[in-house]
Specification:
- This protein is mainly alpha-helical and about 375 residues long.
- The protein contains 16 helices and no strands.
- The chain has helices at about 1-15, 20-40, 45-60, 65-80, 85-100, 105-120, 125-140, 145-160, 165-185, 185-205, 205-225, 225-240, 245-265, 265-280, 285-305, 310-385.
- The chain is elongated, with a radius of gyration of 34 Å.
- The termini are far apart.
Length: about 375
C-alpha cells in the first residue's frame, strides 16, 4: 500500500510537470516521500502525521509546489478528522479543495470533496453531506475511477447507517468491499467489515455482528489502523454487553479507551466512557459511573469548546467567498478583454475607412491624370492641323 501510494504520487505529479521534471525531480521526490509517510500515519498516529505533513507543507509552499501543497492540506484534513478536530479538518479540507477543484488532479479533487462530506456526516449535517457526496460520485463516474467510487460507497454506507437505512447501508458496504478486494485494499475493506458489524448490531443480530467485528479487529491490527481498531473494540464491547457478558464488555471498552486516548479521538472516547458509565449504573456501581461522567464532561469541554457547525459554515463561507472573488476577477478580466476587443474593432474600422478613402482618392487622382493626359495628347494634334 505504501509503495503503491508513493509511486502514484511521484508518477502522477511528474506526468503533469512536463519540462519541469529535470529541474525539480529531487525536491519533488523528497516531497513525495514525506507526504506519503504523513498520509500513512494519519490513522495510526495522527499527531505524528500532522507534524510531518506541516513540515512538508512548509517546504512545498517555499518551493511554490502547488500539487504537494494541496496534497498536504488534504493529509492534514484527514489527520485532524481522525482526532475529531472538525474545525481544523474542515479548514485544511477547503484549502485542499481550492487547489484541486477543476484541476487535472481529479482523484485528489474527489477525495477532498469526500473527506469534507464525511466530516459533515460526523456533525449530523446530512443534507450538506449529501451534496458533497453527490459531487464526489459524479467525479468518480465521469472519470471512470473505480478507486474513488469505492471510497464513495464506503462513506455512502456510513451516511445511510447514520440515517438508519440499514438495508441500503449494507448494499453500499458490500459494493465497496467488492471493489476494495479487487484492488487488494485490505485497509479500506476492513473499515467496511467494521461498518457491517455496526449495522448488524443496530439490527439486533449480535452473532453476525460479532463475527464481522472479529474479522475487522484482525485486519485493523494487521493494517495498523488504530482509529478503526479503537472503534472495533468499542463495537465488540457493545456486542458482548447485549449478550450479557459484562466483564468481557468492560475489558474491551478499556482497550478501546486506551487506543482512542493515544490518538486523541475525542468523539470515540466520549462514546466509550458513556457506555462504560451506563454499564456501571446498571451494575449499581454509582461511584464508578460518576467517575466516568466526570471524564465525559471534560472530554465534551474539549470537543465542544466552540460551535462546530458554525465553524464548518464559516470555512465553507470563506471558501465560497474566495470562489466568488475569483469569479469576479475573471469577469473583470473578461470585461477588460471585451473592451479592448471593441477598441481594436473600432480602430480597425477607422483604419479600414481611411484606407478606403485613400484608395478612392488615389483612384480619383489617377483618373484625373488619365483625363489630363488624354487632353494633352489631343491638343498638339489639333494645333498642328490649324497650320
Amino acid at each position: 500500500m505504501k509503495v503503491f501510494l508513493f509511486n502514484l504520487l511521484v508518477l502522477f505529479f511528474f506526468a503533469l510537470s512536463g519540462p519541469l521534471f529535470a529541474q525539480h525531480s529531487a525536491d519533488s521526490l523528497d516531497l513525495a516521500q514525506s507526504t506519503t509517510a504523513a498520509y500513512e500515519l494519519y490513522l495510526a498516529n495522527p499527531d505524528s502525521s500532522i507534524v510531518l505533513s506541516t513540515e512538508t507543507l512548509a517546504r512545498a509552499i517555499q518551493g511554490k509546489n502547488k500539487y504537494f501543497q494541496g496534497f498536504n492540506y488534504f493529509v492534514l484534513s484527514k489527520a485532524y478528522w481522525a482526532k475529531a478536530n472538525y474545525r481544523l479538518s474542515t479548514e485544511f479540507g477547503f484549502k485542499a479543495l481550492k487547489i484541486f477543484e477543476n484541476s487535472p488532479h481529479v482523484y485528489l479533487w474527489g477525495e477532498t470533496v469526500l473527506a469534507l462530506a464525511r466530516t459533515l456526516i460526523d456533525l449530523k449535517n446530512f443534507d450538506r453531506a449529501k451534496a458533497f457526496m453527490t459531487n464526489a460520485m459524479n467525479i468518480a463516474v465521469r472519470q471512470s475511477n473505480d478507486k474513488l467510487l469505492a471510497d464513495v460507497f464506503r462513506e455512502q454506507s456510513f451516511l445511510l447507517l447514520e440515517e438508519q437505512k440499514y438495508d441500503s447501508a449494507l448494499l453500499y458496504a458490500d459494493k465497496g468491499i467488492a471493489l476494495y478486494e479487487t484492488y487488494g485494499d485490505t485497509l479500506n475493506a476492513s473499515i467496511l467489515f467494521g461498518r457491517k458489524a455496526r449495522i448488524y448490531l443496530s439490527l439486533g443480530d449480535y452473532e453476525t455482528s460479532m463475527a464481522l467485528n472479529q474479522k475487522a479487529l484482525l485486519l485493523d491490527s494487521l493494517m495498523g489502523n488504530r482509529r478503526a481498531l479503537g472503534v472495533s473494540y468499542f463495537q465488540s464491547a457493545q456486542g458482548y454487553y447485549y449478550l450479557k457478558q459484562d466483564k468481557k464488555s468492560i475489558s474491551l471498552l478499556k482497550k478501546s479507551i486506551v487506543i482512542s486516548n493515544e490518538i486523541r479521538n475525542l468523539s470515540s472516547l466520549i462514546k466509550a466512557h458513556t457506555f462504560l458509565s451506563d454499564i456501571y449504573l446498571a451494575q449499581a456501581k454509582p461511584s464508578l459511573a460518576v467517575k466516568e461522567l466526570q471524564i465525559i464532561s471534560q472530554l465534551k469541554d474539549s470537543l465542544y469548546s466552540t460551535e462546530r457547525n458554525g465553524q464548518i459554515q464559516e470555512m465553507q463561507s470563506l471558501y465560497e467567498l474566495e470562489n466568488k472573488e475569483n469569479t469576479i476577477q475573471l469577469l473583470e478580466q473578461e470585461n477588460a478583454l471585451k473592451k479592448q476587443q471593441v477598441k481594436n474593432q473600432r480602430f480597425f474600422t477607422v483604419f479600414l475607412l481611411v484606407s478606403i478613402l485613400l484608395l478612392l482618392l488615389l483612384i480619383f487622382v489617377l483618373w484625373r491624370l488619365r483625363v489630363l493626359q488624354k487632353k494633352g495628347e489631343r491638343y498638339p494634334r489639333d494645333k498642328k492641323q490649324s497650320y
